[in-house]
Design brief:
single chain, alpha+beta, Beta-Lactamase, Heat Shock Protein 90, 2 domains, 6-stranded mixed β-sheet, 59% helix
Amino acid sequence: MLEQPAVSEAITPVVLADGRRAHRRDLEPSRRVLARFGISTALALMVILVAGLVFSSRAAEREGVADVRRLTHVLAHSVVEPNLTAGLLAGDDEAVAAMDDLVKRQLAESTDLVRVKLWAEGGRIVYSDEGRLIGTQYAFGDEELVALKAGTTDAEVSDLGRSENRFERNLGGRLLEVYSGVQAPDGTRLLFETYFSFDVVHARRTVLLWSFASITLVGLFVFAAFQLSLGYTTVRWLQRERERLLEKAVRVSEDERRRLAADLHDGIVQDLVGAAYVVTGTSAELRRRREYDECQTRLSSAADSIRTSVQGLRSMIVDLYPASLGMAGLHVAMSDLVAPLRSRGMSVDLFMPEELRIPEHVQALLYRISQEAVRNIVRHAQASSVSIHVEGRHGRTVLSITDDGTGFTPGGNSVPGHIGLRTMADLAQEAGALLEITSAPGRGTAIVVELPS
């Protein structure tokens, strides 16, 4: 096994291509894409939740007020209205005491009432649990007049600054007053008014909000889980599609190389071989006839040129599509690739474990990169020893090619074999591989390629 040049210990390897980042972004986007998707989904859900809570809070408050309004309507028509008497309307003490008993002992104990008033037309208070208000008179507002005449129920926040509400100021906090029209047995229209602490509305709103929030949170959680699951499935599908397309692109490239090689072999090469036979036969015929003149010399030169072209085309066909790669696998193809090096007297160390399983598209890539590296070694390195190793490391395939040749400065202005290096870099970048080169003048060259298996 040829050791990597000592320069690798003294000089930092130069990265010619690093397609891992693009590869991770294109082939393994799950974490990053799902993280962004999850964050955006969470932000959207938070906006929806906050907006929902704001609108739900208002709706819950309106529902709380509506509950109090419905309660007042029920009390007005099922409890108060049947107990309206002429004595109460006239201010009879016994009638007032009977209404007090009804309000204070029954209604106040079973509800959250804090004040009750019963108004006659003209704004006179005929009854209140605050006795000091009985007999006083105040002007009706428009809403009170509508409720009185139509028998409807309405609610509003109490204006504690009004004189008729002076005794409610010491009850503490905001009050909700609800008024509903009632009718005495003799047909007299009255206005039944109740006061509730706004805490009742707040409590009702809290209950409704918790109910809404729990249902909403469960729904949003299920929706988020579904979205993330869908996003993950889509990302994985895109990943597999990208891998499939990459493999298909490699196969298409190999198929095109195979087609070109077949066309060259069956077309131009055969034509040149036929032409070489004709020229060679004509030249031999002229020699037998002792007509060895300038024409015969030219024919012999042309025959040599054709044979040289045929050899070059056959070598190009092997380079385009080595039959051994498709038929016998990477190890045999690599052995054929380094055979010319051995014929030049170089010491070649080729190592690739037999148990190593490499996908076909990865084999093709390794062969192309090795092919460019061997060309550079033959043309520029003047090396005596070459080592080519293919290994599996932590789920990645690693190709290392080292030689003890003249070496060069990778970042220099004049780099031997720069077209081959550029080709290797393009191949590695496209495949999502890392390509590093370590070299220095007079100290050999080491090329390392890491790519996903």
